[in-house]
Write a sequence for this structure.
């Protein structure tokens, strides 16, 4: 079984993330959505909320699993037997950020490939940071979020 892992903080999960996971699922038998927990980083949504949002987003998608993780993504990939790390690219800036990480991962684990998937053009500007900024300023980013992500974001901002 070919397994890929896609890792991120997903704070919040966007439709851009959902698109990449579903397109990755067409390439791999199993895609593990690894929701990162880094106590050194401040997130708007707590880990349990981010996990719940991801589980809801992919509840109907066979072959997609949700997991929490800490540490290096490449180490997680090795532990779960993944052959690839799946990453979405919105633009050249993303490629410039992702390429050194992909090369370092390949050096640490030569059997694990990084697979880049180009973002759907209609979602190329969507980022978790932008969604938080829009919502924080009173705007409505719901068209770029799952209903559960939008609900969680609204609740977090109301606190």
């Amino acid at each position: 079984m070919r397994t890929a892992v896609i890792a991120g903080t997903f704070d919040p999960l966007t439709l851009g993330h959902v698109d990449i996971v579903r397109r990755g699922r067409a390439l791999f038998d199993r895609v593990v959505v690894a929701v990162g927990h880094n106590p050194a980083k401040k997130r708007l949504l707590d880990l349990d909320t981010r996990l719940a949002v991801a589980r809801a987003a992919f509840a109907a998608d066979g072959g997609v699993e949700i997991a929490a993780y800490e540490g290096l993504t490449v180490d997680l990939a090795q532990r779960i037997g993944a052959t690839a790390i799946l990453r979405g690219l919105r633009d050249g800036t993303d490629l410039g950020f992702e390429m050194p990480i992909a090369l370092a991962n390949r050096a640490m684990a030569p059997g694990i490939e990084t697979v880049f998937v180009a973002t759907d053009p209609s979602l190329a500007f969507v980022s978790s940071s932008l969604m938080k900024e829009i919502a924080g300023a009173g705007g409505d980013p719901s068209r770029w979020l799952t209903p559960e992500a939008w609900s969680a974001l609204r609740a977090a901002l109301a606190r």
Q: What stands out?
A: The first strand starts at residue 3 and ends at 8.
